[in-house]
Amino acid sequence: MFNKHPKGLVAASLSNLGERFGFYTMMAILVLFLQAKFGLNGKEAGLIYSTFYFSIYILALVGGIIADKTRNYKGTILTGIILMGVGYLMLAIPSSTPVTNQMLFLIVTCVALLVIAFGNGLFKGNLQALVGQMYDNPQYANMRDSGFSLFYMFINIGAIFAPFAAVGVRNWWLSTFGYNYNADLPALCHGHLAGTLTPEAVETYNTLATKAMISGTPVSDMTAFANEYLNVFTTGFHYAFGVAILAMLVSLVIFLVNKNKFPDPSKKTASQADATVVEMSLQEVKQRMYALFAVFGIVIFFWFSFHQNGLTLTYFAKEYTDLNLFGLPISAELFQSLNPFFVVFLTPIIMAIFAAQRARGKEPSTPKKIAIGMGIAATAFLVMAVGSYLGNLPMHKDIIAMGTSPVKVTPVLLMITYLILTIAELYISPLGISFVSKVAPPKYQGIMQGGWLGATAIGNQLLVIGAVLYESIPIWMTWTVFVVACCISMFTMLFMLKWLEKVAK
Questions:
Q1: Domain range holding 412?
Q2: Which of 39, 103, 207, 455 has the highest count of CB atoms within 10 angstroms of its CB?
Q3: Which CATH number belongs to the domain containing residue 243 in this structure?
């Protein structure tokens, strides 16, 4: 599988395992942690979540600028790994819940998220730039797309286990204190303490509180139960963030052991650098930059839709999904394992499809693959829209009033959606990174990889719109908005296809 690729590809992929582990830990539990810890509603938690993911990607642009200016890609990446570990450590230190000073602890949490985001910004785009530089060697140039697909597959191995680890730690901590997991209880506990529950929600709370006791003993003091359940629940989440620290240490060791296998742009002589600049005219540089900025603008709509997996799709898993699969109880967070699992499982299949097309001389260009991926993403949200409509799901305000949704859909709906979304991702994300590394002028490799991530950042900041829609309109209409967004991206990409293919030659 790797015999036609640079030796440093495997090492770079394994170095990224810790970052992916932490990323999917946050994807699985961040909004649920914010709601359980601080009693935030979906819009408030969504704003913090979207700003965090915006920061991760926009700071990749800053990280690219730093690496391009210093030409010290490896040092920048190393600093990023360390900072991410520090940020997770800040989140892992437990504090009592309900919090005594919400504003203070929210600020501490947001500072920790900012540290993680800045470390990720130093790390993410620059490691991708190093992978791209491996394929600047003519020996490997025609394997660039498949190389990035392999890179994308292997970095997601760590992501598969992150939600399981987070859920395992949280549920172990709950069971230690004699409690079962229940997705609805944290919000009901906060509502009870605030005195905002409706009579129907109070009844739901009383019923679920008894079920949450492993012993099955009826709860006599509902206020004491609310305080202790919230404290144990969120402390388990704090310890789950601690597991991400261990993953970052693994990445740190792998990177240090293998860093000599990675390209080092700083060792290029001045004459080599000058030769690179002379080979590319100013007009060509402009055309390449225009093409990249056009693609960046298009993919904003895709990421606005796709990264709902950690926000509105997570809310949907918690509130509208029957958390039983084949008679076994599951946690809402575990759905986040589906995407990286499908990435690892489907990447060889997608690569085989591309190879077969290549052998027949019919392989789509990279821009066309990206357009196809956007159409596939639209299909995924269409499945959600149809499933929600046919399920006659109530509006969010109604389930808040009742304490839980009276109608819950099969978890298979989300499983199918994540499968289709992952196929779309494999047509877009690794190939988009490949497109950037191929088209970007050599002296702007780092900053243009940062530009791709910056476009992702804007899409992520728009995620909060999804949270607002989720709580304001029928749920099937929320998914329809994402269908439209993905279709806009697809048709715009197809409109510019010939121009993009010409520039990418």
A1: 8-261+269-504
A2: 455
A3: 1.20.1250.20
